Amino acid sequence: MMEVSRSNEAALEAIYRRHGGAVYGLANRMLSENGIAEEITQEIFLRLWQEPARFDPERGSLRTFLLTSAHSRAVDKIRADTARRRREDRDHREDPGRDRVTPLEDEVASLIVGDEVRAAVEGLPADEREAIGLAYFGGYSYRQVAEMLGTPEGTVKSRIRHGMQSLRALLAQSTGVEEGSAT
Amino acid sequence: MTSSHDELRELVAAYSLDALEPAETAEVAEHLAGCAECRAELRELRTIAGQLGTSDTAPPTGLWDRISEELVDDPPTPIASAKRGRSRRWVALAVAAAIVAIVGLGVLVINQQRRLDDAHREIAAQVEGQGAVERAARAAAAAPGSRQVALVSPQGDAVADVVIASTDEAYVIPRSMRPLGSGETYQLWGKHGSQLISLGVLGSRPTATLLSLPSGIEAIAVTVEDAPGVVTSHHTPIAGGSVA
Q: Is residue A138 helix, strand or coil?
């Protein structure tokens, strides 16, 4: 049985070598605090080790699964942190994004590494790019984005939806195999 | 609060970016469980979100070692049934890792799902007892319609046999594969046009193994690689055989 467990560890290491950088890189871009991205990366891989059944190939590639998990954890950290700071400092209650750097719509693309994906994002209308960037990299809910921008919630929701659908249409033909674009 | 399919579908994009409030997240998650259409949309949107987040950042030095240490602290449970469950689940990941490696090579990925199914069967057989694969291989070799490919070394020694029972069922039966050091593994490759596709890693002491042979494989070769296996081999095969 040790043979099985050793080969499992080799499989986990192969997965880490392939995707660990992307998982860490995403968490690191979302959270400026040192050490948290590392903590999230460690957590994601340990959870994969302990509960491999959470990954369902029917729902998407392993890379997507790992990045989705890392993103959710980073958002949890950001929101917990925001809530803590709000409690500590009443001045923050009106402004959920006050002490975080707000990625301006022009900076969203600079957070994106892949040329093709960056080009697709740059091709979006500025307001859609901004809404998606604040939600994805900033970790804000669409309601918080609406509050920050002084835009109706329904409008932000539509911008996210429309922008994501445009990206899907733009990138669909180039992503027959999901991980291919990430190499 | 009950929302209609259309209302919830409006929220799937924001859900894919983790941009909903907790109550909405729960509502959309519940809807997704029963709506294949929205699940399909979410799958595509998450792929796009993953592409936004992807990068070629190098993780900090030593991070894998810290993860690896935690694994040692959490050895597989000694309860047989639990071990079995874990092993089967792990196969999906091991195979996913292999598929990722193949994609990294830029080669064709063929019949991923079939490979996954086969690997599930393989590990099940491994857990039940290695003899089961051996018996299945022998039975397949004797069955009418099966084909056998001898993998022969440059010196003319038959190193292993590959029994092709059907398009999705093939076996490697080692004949004279010396045990390797713990840092090495045998790796099986399929030649597809000008490309070499990894068919699997056999370990340092190979036993009969079930594998799936992608269609269009013209030849099979075996190399000795550093464990746990490689994406691109730089070694001359120790043996090979033509499938055609």
A: coil
Verdict on whether the full-model pTM lies above 0.90? no
For residue A167, the surrounding DSSP H or E stretch is helix A153-172
Within an 8 Å CB–CB cutoff, is residue B55 touching chain A? yes
Distances (CA, A) of A100 to A14, A19, A78, A103, B61: 35, 27, 10, 9, 27
- The per-residue pLDDT for range B159-210, each reduced to its tens digit, is 898 888 876 678 888 888 888 888 888 988 887 776 777 888 888 888 888 7
Q: 């699964």: which residue's tokens?
A: A65
* Residue A146 distance to chain B (closest CA, Å): 11
User: Which of residues 201 through 240 in chain B touch A, CB cutoff 8 A?
Assistant: 203, 227-229
A84–chain B nearest CA distance, Å: 17
pLDDT of residue A163: 96
pLDDT of residue A23: 94
Q: Which two tokens stand for residue B13?
A: 């994009």
Residues 183-202 of B with CB under 8 A from A: none
What residue type is B89 in one-letter code? R
Q: What is the mean pLDDT of chain B?
A: 74
Helix (H) or strand (E) holding A9: helix A2-30
Task: Measure the CA–CA gap between A22 and A17, rounded to whole angstroms.
Answer: 10
More confident residue, A37 or B236: A37
| Interface contacts (A, B; CB < 8 Å) | 231
Please count the residues of chain A: 183
Nearest CA in chain B to A48: B93
Return phi, psi of residue B174, to 5°. -65, 145
ipTM for the whole complex: 0.82
Interface membership of B175 toward A (CB under 8 Å):
no
Three-state SS letters, B15-53: HHCCCCCHHHHHHHHHHHHHCHHHHHHHHHHHHHHHHHH
For residue B72 the two structure tokens come to 């040692």
B100–A143: do the CB atoms touch at under 8 Å?
no
pLDDT at A66: 93
Q: How far apart are CA B77 and CA B140, in angstroms?
A: 34
Identify the closest residue of chain A to B90 by CA–CA distance.
A52
Other Cβ atoms less than 10 A from the Cβ of B141: the count is 16
Inter-chain CB proximity B59 and A21 less than 8 Å = yes
